[in-house]
């Protein structure tokens, strides 16, 4: 267990640092969010308080790209860095009032002291995965912008003068074409990155053997799961993606149907939904289509059936990666023949007879109390 806890509240331009030893606050400081400033501050604090690198637990909230300078410093100085979910830190303090960066740094340091046994060292992901994640984020931004311009062109057609609409259509159509070119360039860069890494290329090829899974879903799954190292089981991923239903009951007064949680990764959930719809309704010969039609005829809600299909797709994707085998659509389960059944029955019968013969009967003992 570390004797010192350093809580860091990260924002875009600055960091608020709070160094504690148990419940005692030793040092509080505010610095710029740059590599040089962080390194200089940490060295100064350790030197003034006679603290070694091995005796400090650095805890911070995960805030996306803004953590990059802190991660670089901790890797260079070999500091134990614990990146925790902001929601967990917030919920651990119950009902609170007031908020600022200085108080948040104190609370993070206190959280690190209380839950130090649950600390997990943060490791920088593979550089190729980080590049893919950034490219996918840029692609999502461009897609949202293109959708915004296209919808405005579609919705405003009958609600303005024809000359004004023609002018707007001419200018915004050029913008949409430019966005399409940029999206195509990003797709090419993603393809080049995947082809350059043998592991990622092999995983995407395995994933695409599953019905309903294409290039977009395969790459997104590899990035979200960190090449299938972030989640141990498909159930954990289903919870993360918002596919797992949860109950909401309390005594006799509160009882509702099981529902999926809204706290989920909506992007991967939307892609999985499209894959489930494609596999269940558009593929001519598919086990998912037979399952969807059978369950809907039984009276199940279509969205409930599609959610099950989404979970099935996730299970199959995890299975092909774990087994390192392509998905087999016509997989035949072994069915024993009559000859093998008779052979196995005779073996079990011989074992039973042998065990019965070699089992010694318990000896009867005299009841001395009657004598």
Radius of gyration: 30 Å
Determine and state the CATH class of the domain at 4-118.
Answer: Alpha Beta
Low-confidence segments: 364-371
Strand order of the largest sheet: 3-2-1-4-5
Number of helices: 13
Roughly how many Å apart are the termini?
68 Å
Structural class: alpha/beta
Q: Quote the average pLDDT.
A: 86
Sheet of most strands: 5 strands, mixed
- The CATH architecture of the domain at 4-118 comes to 2-Layer Sandwich
Instruction: Report the count of strand segments.
Output: 7
Q: Level of helix content?
A: 55-70%
Which band does the percent of strand residues land in? 5-15%
H/E series? EEEHEHEHHHHHHHEEHHHH
In CATH, the topology of the domain at 4-118 is named Nucleotidyltransferase, domain 5
Q: Give the CATH H-level superfamily of the domain at 4-118.
A: ATPase, nucleotide binding domain
Oligomer: single chain
Shape: globular
Blueprint (SSEs and pairs):
Blueprint: E1 4-10, E2 14-21, E3 24-32, H1 35-48, E4 56-61, H2 68-77, E5 80-84, H3 86-92, H4 101-114, H5 127-155, H6 162-196, H7 198-207, H8 215-224, H9 234-241, E6 245-250, E7 254-260, H10 266-282, H11 287-297, H12 302-323, H13 338-358
Parallel strand pairs: 1-4, 4-5
Antiparallel strand pairs: 1-2, 2-3, 6-7
Helix pairs in contact: 5-6, 5-8, 7-8, 8-10, 9-12, 10-11, 10-12, 11-12
Overview of the structural elements:
- With 371 residues, the chain is of the alpha/beta class.
- It starts with a strand and ends in a 13-residue tail after the last helix.
- It has helices at residues 35-48, 68-77, 86-92, 101-114, 127-155, 162-196, 198-207, 215-224, 234-241, 266-282, 287-297, 302-323, 338-358; strands at 4-10, 14-21, 24-32, 56-61, 80-84, 245-250, 254-260.
